[in-house]
């Protein structure tokens, strides 16, 4: 039986999460270039983004069954290399149809990689003597920061979208080659289905997860266009907004366990939601570009630890088996981050892109409003657990 608790397998898992975040972030600075190249309005662009989401969610639903039969390793490799192969086509697709097909394929590779790497991460964590999942997901944020930074820098020096994506693809191929021999060859899959429809209290958790991930997806897909159309930055620097968001999200995730242990889940949801909403206010109302850009930092910091609270509650609720609850929330969350941003384009077509972002801020109000409901049960037990964790950490 293959040992799962090894530095090599941890490295491979981290590289898989890094590639997923990196690939997704590489697309963000390309959105304004794609819109200009195709000459489409916000509504058509929203339909194109929907192709990415549909491809991703369809692949997610299939990957659970494929991983049970073949293990997660071949799916991780295929998904990572597929992202590297398809990314340059997003920079040269010359018609809405070809870009839609490319985005659907890109989304399918991303969706399959997302599910397979999480299955792999669960198996690796089982053999470890300490939690690893938060660190793995932090690598996704680091990948987002590196990908956005790299493509933005290349575009800033006039390298062009095609050259920027080719170099980015080379980085992903190298990462996957390093990970390939270190991934687990066999992964035990759970007998439970990959996805079930959430119900009751879990439905509330899933809805809040979808909203939070929707905000992240909107920042990814629309922040560059919002900044450029409002004259905050030029097109070559459009990725700066998502880069700042990714930095704040990464810092928040790395510090999240310690902060939660100190102030508790309810405060994380309440104040995290309020900070994120304040970020939208700064972004949309500030007359100064520097202050407006700081809004991305506040959004990232505020939203970074809301989802971990939701997953924690999914693991302790009694409405349905915890494994099925976590799987349902995961799929709903990814559906929010990938399908949801398409709705931003539809709304923007009628009330403008700033109006769509105000709508996101309104949706995010659900997090502080529902903080008491989500954390109402087992508050005393959780406080004791947080104090115990803090004492052990000290």
UniProtKB/TrEMBL annotation:
Its main location: membrane. GO terms for cellular component: membrane. GO terms for molecular function: transmembrane transporter activity. SUPFAM superfamilies: MFS general substrate transporter. It comes from the Bacteria. It is a multi-pass membrane protein. Pfam families: MFS_1. The keyword Electron transport does not apply. Keywords: Membrane, Transmembrane, Transmembrane helix. It is found in: Membrane. InterPro entries: MFS (IPR011701), MFS_dom (IPR020846), MFS_trans_sf (IPR036259), MFS_Transporter (IPR051788). The keyword Protein biosynthesis does not apply. Residues 9-379 form the Major facilitator superfamily (MFS) profile domain. The chain crosses the membrane at residues 12-31, 43-63, 75-93, 99-122, 134-155, 161-180, 201-220, 240-256, 268-285, 291-311, 323-344, 356-374. This is Sugar phosphate permease.
